[in-house]
Write a structure and sequence with these properties.
Order of helices and strands: EHEEHEHHEEHEEHEEHHEEHEEHH
Low-confidence stretches: none
Mean pLDDT: 95
Pfam families: Epimerase (PF01370)
Strand order of the largest sheet: 3-2-1-4-5-7-11
CATH topology: Rossmann fold
Radius of gyration: 19 Å
Protein name: Nucleoside-diphosphate-sugar epimerase
CATH superfamily: NAD(P)-binding Rossmann-like Domain
Length: 310
């Protein structure tokens, strides 16, 4: 089976790509390498690995790459509200229009498995779990473009979408700005964090379980196709304060407090049910605690000190 991954050198793709190759799949990665990353260097040992430097919005290039693909995984995206707010046009054209392009050009037989985000739920109802049937009310440009892209993908039927919880964990193309990754980094180096609106809740999932759910989707495609699936940890619908409490178990010197004034620009607040994906036989391997311990080891290696003397 031949798999095309756009944005395959990003945070998720840099974990997913080597796992697919190790399982014997033939993988082509299209990426702009806009962050100068070398996260797929070790994949070059595989004869079944192909890499193309280019733009996912390039219609002629996408046409060429689709010819030899059985499965398409569109990972290319500008991710997160801060980055999206800096480049509205890029966000719209990469996160939505490039996905619509793939949907328009792909044959009915080609399969698409796409990650979106459960941030599309926006602000949920207190005490009520968001399911795949819950209304989508995104409150950011990022969330809106992902909801639009999901609609385009599911309209073609031979597709699956994964509404990912907030992802955490180590990747060869690391991101320290994701919530769990960020809080553990602050706890490890600063030993303190000030929290705004600490009652806001989110769901979480480890990056290696994200890779696992893609493989699960590929292997069980016929019985799963045509639907969206929430993908998160059932026991990790946590507020920011509860997340800090979990981190403190592994870093006892960590101090956190909630600011009495001020607000978080990210207003997402919801709890999520992941029962639909669990009913297909999928189960996560990584608990939140295991991921926190992994991050502590990772931050022993990594340090954001480009503009520092120490």
């Amino acid at each position: 089976m031949k798999i095309l991954i756009t944005g395959g050198a990003g945070y998720i793709g840099s974990v997913l790509t080597p796992i697919l190759l190790a399982k014997g799949y033939e993988v082509t990665v299209l990426d702009s390498f806009m962050f100068g990353q070398n996260s797929l260097a070790d994949c070059c040992q595989y004869d079944k690995f192909h890499v193309v430097r280019g733009d996912c919005r390039d219609e002629s290039l996408i046409k060429k790459l689709l010819k030899d693909s059985d499965v398409i995984i569109p990972l290319a995206a500008l991710v997160g509200a801060p980055l999206c707010s800096r480049d509205n046009i890029g966000t719209r054209t990469i996160n939505y229009e490039a996905v619509q392009l793939i949907c328009d050009l792909a044959s009915k037989q080609q399969r698409i498995l796409m990650p979106v985000t459960n941030s599309g739920y926006g602000i949920g109802e207190a005490g009520k779990f968001c399911t795949e049937e819950s209304p989508l009310r995104p409150i950011s440009l990022y969330g809106t473009t992902k909801v639009d892209a999901e609609r385009a993908v599911l309209e073609r039927e031979n597709s699956i979408t994964f509404r990912l919880a907030t992802v955490f964990g180590m990747s060869p193309r690391m991101r320290v700005d994701l919530l769990v990754n960020d809080f553990v980094y602050r706890a490890f180096y600063d030993r303190a964090v000030v929290i705004f609106e600490g009652h806001f809740k989110r769901n979480y999932i480890h990056i290696r379980d994200v890779a696992k759910v893609f493989i699960h989707g590929i292997e069980n495609f016929e019985r799963m196709k045509g639907k969206p699936y929430n993908v998160g940890l059932e026991d990790a619908n946590l507020s920011k304060l509860e997340l800090c409490f979990e981190i403190k178990k592994y870093l006892p010197n960590f101090t956190y407090l909630e600011a009495p004034i001020g607000e978080d620009p990210d207003k997402r607040d919801y709890i999520v049910s992941n029962q639909r994906i669990l009913d297909t036989g999928f189960s996560p391997d990584w608990s939140l605690g295991r991921g926190i311990q992994e991050l502590i080891k990772g931050y022993t290696i990594l340090r954001n000190s480009v503009y520092s003397n120490v």
